[in-house]
Amino acid sequence: MIMVAVFSAFVFGHNEMVRPIAFALAVGVLLDAFLVRMTLVPAVMALFGRAAWWLPRWLDALLPNVDVEGERLAPVPAGGAAGADEERAAEDERGAARR
């Protein structure tokens, strides 16, 4: 919306060469933001289902495993350290199954 506001401001300027370019950019950004990114992309992702999130194995091997939500920092289960090791092994198996 900021880009649309900035481009629209140039439409009302005095430079006749900039006005049509600014108008085209404002309309293009507005259509991209609302029509494409808020309508078409979610609809296509809903049609594809889980396939929309598919990642090739070779790419998954190259990407780092980033723990943004801190699941690895969860408290140790009541079973002690052995339980935590088993839980990590189960997580690794689930990750390998997804690949």
Automatic annotation (TrEMBL):
Record carries keyword Cytoplasm: no
Region (Disordered): 77-99
Highest taxon of the lineage: Bacteria
Keyword annotations of the record: Cell membrane, Membrane, Transmembrane, Transmembrane helix
Residue ranges, compositional bias (Basic and acidic residues): 85-99
InterPro entries hit by this protein: MMPL_dom, Mycobact_MmpL
Record domain Membrane transport protein MMPL: where: 2-56
Compartments where found: Cell membrane
Membrane topology per record: Multi-pass membrane protein
One Pfam entry name: MMPL
One Gene Ontology cellular component annotation held by this UniProt entry: plasma membrane
Protein name per UniProt: Putative membrane protein YdfJ with MMPL/SSD domain
